[in-house]
Amino acid sequence: MSMSSGAPKTRFARAWDSDLAWAFRHSPIAMVSFAMAVILIFAAAFAPWIAPHNPFDPATLNLMNGFTPPSTPNAFTNESFLLGTDNQGRDVFSTILYGMRISLFVGFSAVGFAMVLGITLGLVAGYFGGWTDAIIMRIADIQLTFPSILVAMLIFGIATSITPVEYREQMAIWVLIIAIGLSDWVQFARVVRGATFVEKGKEYVQAARLIGRSPVAIMVQHILPNVLSPVLVIATISLALAIIAEATLSFLGVGAPPTQPSLGTLISIGQDYLFSGEWWILFFPALTLLALALSVNLLGDWLRDVLNPRLR
Amino acid sequence: MLSFIIKRVAQSVLVLLVVGLIAFAMFRYVGDPLDAMVSIEASVEEVERVREQLGLDQPFFVQYVRFLQGAVQGDFGISYRQGEPVLDIILARLPATMELAAISGTFAISMGIVLGVFTAIRRDGFASSLIMSLSLVGVSLPTFLIGILLIYLFSVELDWLPSFGRGELTDIGLWETGLLTTSGLKALILPSITLGLYQMTLIMRLVRSEMLEVLRQDYVRFARARGLSDRAVNFRHALRNTLVPVITVTGLQLGAIIAFAIVTETVFQWPGVGLLFINAIQFVDIPVMAAYLMFIAVMFVAINLLVDILYVAVDPRLRNQETSV
Hints:
The complex is a heterodimer.
Chain A: H1 8-17, H2 19-25, H3 28-45, H4 47-50, H5 92-128, H6 130-145, H7 148-162, H8 165-182, H9 185-200, H10 203-210, H11 215-223, H12 228-252, H13 263-272, H14 280-307
Helix pairs in contact in A: 3-5, 3-14, 5-6, 5-8, 5-9, 5-12, 5-13, 5-14, 6-9, 7-8, 9-12, 10-11, 12-13, 12-14, 13-14
Chain B: H1 2-29, H2 33-37, H3 44-54, H4 60-72, H5 86-121, H6 126-140, H7 143-157, E1 170-171, E2 176-177, H8 182-215, H9 218-225, H10 230-267, H11 273-282, H12 286-314, H13 316-324
Antiparallel strand pairs in B: 1-2
Helix pairs in contact in B: 1-12, 5-6, 5-8, 5-10, 6-8, 7-8, 7-10, 8-10, 9-10, 10-11, 10-12, 11-12, 12-13
């Protein structure tokens, strides 16, 4: 796990012996889903080197290759594609790799954004209490009344209408990240606030306050490290939800633009050709999305059980 | 009890005012609403005259109050895209969504309770564990994929059910219903299952865990000791006591059904308010977006309020807690 500075071997050995690693080595589900997630993330990260074609380079595209079934030579060009091609003759395997890149980029960034926002607000609310706490948690309560996908849609709609038309397409990914992130900070804020409330009364925090450390230093350096394990659990589960939310929004046409297709966009393209029998255009992106969401989900479930024995 | 209700109502009104403020800010400050109303050739003086007529030169607060007054009376302005009053457009689309939500809600509740009771009573049986593991996969599947899967199976491969639209409609005065014709009913099946499946698994898991909890209680054991039949124990004693939390969750899920109807309506091209909203986002039709926002907010706040009050009314223990606080 952490192998930075000092003596790497002892660090590694210590990580290997930790409770978390022990539980990991004894859970087949955790190992399989972790392996699956890592493979998918690597495939997405190294898409330009793995993908046989660059689906965004029009020079390599041949419309004659359109609708080639998986692993069968095309009738006109005699080219063969592992997972077939879509309506524009793009290799489905390559579009999936590039699409997964966008899905994961949006997912990770959105969760990161939600995490920073939620942790900050949670720390502030828990540490200061009083009316600061009341205002922040009231906003959280109001937002929780509405399903997060709806909140994300609304934020996306508002943000799109504010952006000038000529920038909409290039801003879409960032708008998507902000929309999903903003719809998801409440969970983090609630957990961190609760934990901060408890930690605040402990002696080490009082000691830190006595030697004159600033509230910001106390929150970030003293309290934050002690509330991180529930945050990790929520972050993992949020990642699965964010990936699904992104796919849903893109599928509905209020997410990633056609020039940067994510898995959701690919699925919505595939839906158009389901009736004419070109099932592979939809099937493989859908399967990838499912594998991605399921592996991250299972990993999150496992983490929750390990880090929070009371819930078992 | 009364002070609790007053407090909750006040809170709900506050939420609505805040959402109204967001909707108003969108309506008023995202682009110039006059652009959509005045023709391009209009002179500057003419534009100013219309601005004055509409009260758009008034201070922010005055305009906000006016917007709220309009909203309360159902006046949300004119759709940029369709050029008709927003209220008329929404009212024309509402029955489709309501019918879909009602049918899928009924499906989710009835199937959820039946399967939940079944898996609780036969907790170690093969069928129960199969249902439970299937429900896990079902939760990980995004709604739109479930819809596409159903379309592929029942429309493309088997050709039993239609894949889009509402089928034949009958005009019954107030609205057009799809519930009275065979094609209308057939068109409802796939969207209702798509929309209700997630809620069904939630209700099923809840009923199951509550049932397991109740079946462990002393009064259930005493009932069995008295020689009552399994049927009487399971349904008259156990199920009845699991229903309080089920009512709450189901009530809250009603809101989720309306929200997820957006996804289902897009997959099945169901002409309801959800599809209207998605199109409004795509075409930046601000008045429709603002009105939908208000509509959803009212719906959610009303449901939450009702559930909270019902909860306290049903469970006397909560009533005492509330008064002591």
